[in-house]
Amino acid sequence: MSHPAHITTLLKEGRVFKPSAAFAKAAHVGGRAAWDALRRKAAKDPVRFWEERARELLWAKPWRKALDWKFPFAKWFVGGRLNVSANCLDRHLDGPRANKAALVWEGEPGDQRTLTYRQLHREVCVFANALKRLGVKAGDRVAIYMPMVPEAAVAMLACARLGAPHSVVFAGFSAEALRDRIQDAGAKVVIAADGGWRKGAVVPLKAAVDEAVAQCPAVEKVVILRRTGQGVSMKDGRDVWWHDAVQGASADCPAVGHDSENPLFILYTSGSTGKPKGVLHTTGGYLTHAAYTARLVFDLKETDVFWCTADIGWVTGHSYVVYGPLANGATVFMYEGAPMTPAPDRFWDMIERHGVTVFYTAPTAIRAFVRLGGEHPAKHDLSSLRLLGTVGEPINPEAWLWYHEAIGGGRCPIVDTWWQTETGGIMISPLPGATPTKPGSATVPLPGIEAAVVDREGNPVPKGAGGLLAVRRPWPGMLRSVWGDPERYRSQYFSQIPGCYFTGDGARTDKDGYFWILGRVDDVINVAGHRLSTMEIESALVGHPRVAEAAVVGHPDELKGQGITAFVTMRGGAEPVTSEELKATVTKAIGAIARPDVVRFTESLPKTRSGKIMRRLLRDIASGEKPTGDTTTLEDFAALARLQAAQEE
Ligand code: WTA
Predict the structure, then answer these.
(1) What is the per-residue pLDDT across 354-388, written as a single tens digit (0 to 9) for each?
(2) How far is the CA of 445 from the centre of ligand 1 (A)?
(3) Whose C-alpha lies nearest to ligand 1, atom 22?
(4) What's the 286 CA to ligand 1 centre distance in angstroms?
(5) Which of 135, 337, 406, 468 minimizes the number of CB atoms within 10 Å of its CB?
(6) CA triplet 162, 167, 172: central angle to 5 degrees?
(7) Which of 257, 277, 301 is the last residue of a domain?
(8) How far, in Å, are 337, 524, 527, 619, 636 from residue 567 at the CA level?
């Protein structure tokens, strides 16, 4: 695979936002001096720095050796033993946190539940005992296919308690995608629900489980939570209702320590080949990274209500709905359904009613809210918010500024957090009480993380130039392998840049050393010898006041190698614009070199359920081909069909 060593970067963003003195004063890391001290300490001896972070957890047995690094395989806290669920639950029961809310939950139909740490602990113990009775032992893989209900977190924590690695499969995935993931992991038990609520309708999960499991002979038991109550068929001997499984199960389930390198979970992520990769995370290192980043990046305090809108089917849901915040004894808000149901102000209404203080979401969601208009958040009192975050894609400065004003009231710092399923936790991010932010930049690597922008040989590229985003030292939360395929692990992540982990992303640093993520290098297009980041062109397009969202891809062009096609959606109610006007917008923002050859207006863009635009499909359409390859992660098939139909007209 060849990657561009240099990516021409043309977009400039100059605004800087400093944390207020009041925010800095109260923050875990407040102000420049504290931040510098932390960075110096981590840079001096990173392994020791991580050991200190690991010591903040509860260990059943201390480690012998902090890091065993045999390129490209890492082991952290070797010989140590700990229980992740004890770290997230049991250790909070000795003091005032015991009766504090661990989970505050709202279902899409409006039903609500709150579980204190004591209650959540009890549910986890009871369910872990139920799983034991069903034959689950340490090392057995368990697939979880659940809506966003408290039991989804209970199931994850129960598996963690037993040392049985879970593989959470996003409940929006099809039966086929579920089947492939169950088979690849060799799961023996599946935990699911009859259905979940989304956009006012029932998503029939049990039907998908039946279809999938019919082709998974290794599955012995299927546990079904009754959530939506519609009729489902239960297969004798295989299927058991959650409420029956927990009947008579004891609430006493000792949390035995598991080896630090025991698998904690497998999480599938789409690979460039279309065959999903089972990213493997282990126990001690992962929790150390998740807990540390949750505390410092979200500045978690006892009084916070933390809402990360990600589904537990994604890594963000693992690290920042469940493990990171609970390890810190925080209160987590969790919501089951769609953001616009029943009305476009659902999120803002919930923030107001539940007093959410820290809110973490994806740029794609923010752009959707921009499109709906500022009147929806304006209807609500959002003054409880004190900190905002984003993850998943580069955020264009316009969306950042809207988020800052319309949601944050101009008072909340924004942490733009760069990381990946593979990294386990946040890698590049501001610390909200210390780092001046620039809209569109994830700022600098966290203390303990040695990320760099390099060329194909691993040499740093000069400031201002684009290159490959790499990590030069192992870190505790890093993936340990691709499940069942260590060779793929090596070739995918460690064969492209000598001695480094390659992220697959392009980036540049500016004069202050801030990182600007340019998107996946596969998304880079080459126009007449200039490698351009599609993200920068998209950002320029979204800078037009009437554009809601843009996706830019290359199409074959005899003259230039590649030409630029832009797919554009307009803000609700906005007056139409001409393609010429949008092309001129890009020329003005970046230069004529980036001017799109073709602008196509569309109602919506094909996206994954986690909100990533599927540029691969758009590339096919822009090239006049039929979209091919894996579409199991596509959220809205209709969007693709409409684009194709327009093509054929
Ligand atoms: C992209 C999500 C720019 C990036 C946690 C990365 C980002 C991929 C950011 C991982 C950000 C994530 N700025 N780009 N703040 N955060 N990305 O595995 O391309 O679903 O490689 O993990 O999302 O996506 P994943």
Answers:
(1) 999 999 999 889 988 998 999 999 999 999 999 99
(2) 14
(3) 420
(4) 18
(5) 135
(6) 135
(7) 257
(8) 28, 16, 17, 10, 16
